[in-house]
Write a structure and sequence with these properties.
Length: 366
Amino acid sequence: MSKIIKVNIKDNPYNIYIGTEILNNIDKFHKEYFNHRSKIVIYDKILKNSVYFKKLIEKLGKNINIISIDSGEKSKSQKSLYKLYNSLFSNNVDRNSVIYAFGGGVIGDLAGFAAATYMRGIDYVQVPTTLLSQIDSSVGGKTAINSSFGKNLIGAFYQPKLVLIDINTLDSLPKTQMISGYAEMIKYGLINNKKFFSWLEINGKNIIKKNKKDLEKAIYICCKSKADIVKKDEKEKGQRALLNLGHTFGHAFERLANFRSFSHGEAVSVGMILAFKFSYESNLCKKDDLNKVHNHFNAIKLPSKISHLFKDSVKAEDIINSMKLDKKTINSEIKLILVKGIGDAFISAKINEKKLNVFLKNNGFS
Ligand SMILES: NC(=O)c1ccc[n+]([C@@H]2O[C@H](COP(=O)([O-])OP(=O)(O)OC[C@H]3O[C@@H](n4cnc5c(N)ncnc54)[C@H](O)[C@@H]3O)[C@@H](O)[C@H]2O)c1
């Protein structure tokens, strides 16, 4: 049994399937959606010996090209992308082929961007294997690689033809990665779903412990929320930017750490706390809400301070310069996703840089 969400984007509608029997039936999905078209599996090397990867390959059967990608954020690079294009060319992959992206957000973003650009675009399927990718990056068609100038700065909006979420693939995911994905899960509660945040306050620990029933429910809620937002604003002209709560800070941290040392979810986690604190200090949000969020982050052991990410001190000025490379920044004017409370996020007007500088210095930056 699987749950289905329809992503009703006008010109690019597709379905998300969520369940525990997805990989066992992937041959049927392929037949139904793509018939006899040839398949390319682009996968995270870490999964090579996993039962799920073996299942995927066994089920997809004949006419299949397999391309492995090194694990980690460093693979979202021009070098990996060109290596991937070369593998596609040397395997004679044509426009009628279908790419299966099997891995976390790194594989999904890289394979998705390759699919968007290889021969001006070929079809691809997201088969996410991390909590973060199952609730966020596999849905919505944002594909990208990083540049030395910043995170996800080279990319395309290119929707998958199908998203296949098999919760069992999380069985091998380390706890640190569950916690990292959980940061993006809380985000859905914080931006527009207070009821979900309250549910997570009670059930969050079960999610980290991989309780399948709770996972399925939470993954469904997150994907539905993202599908609803993306349907209204595919190209992030407005409301979709709310999904970036904590990300303007987080992406700046990731860039300053050269995309190493800590995970995306951890960076976003500290970023969300800063967004709540900044909102509170700007008299936008109540102390009670800030405390609730803080307490829940502590209960789940999500990082909430900059010292949790960097050993050495980080200059406020460096963070601000990095934030200026964010895609929401126009004419060097920084904008943030701020909150009026839990479940009530909005896109700010231009942020006063001096105020931001003082704020950062009061929150552990030098
Ligand atoms: N496109 C979007 O809309 C969007 C949204 C949010 C985040 N992102 C991007 O997603 C990326 C982060 O995604 P992520 O957290 O999945 O990172 P990731 O792909 O690097 O995966 C995290 C780690 O888990 C390992 N892994 C993957 N599946 C596993 C499994 N089943 N068992 C054991 N280990 C496994 C990976 O090798 C890696 O070490 C970032 O690059 C971020 O920018 C994109």
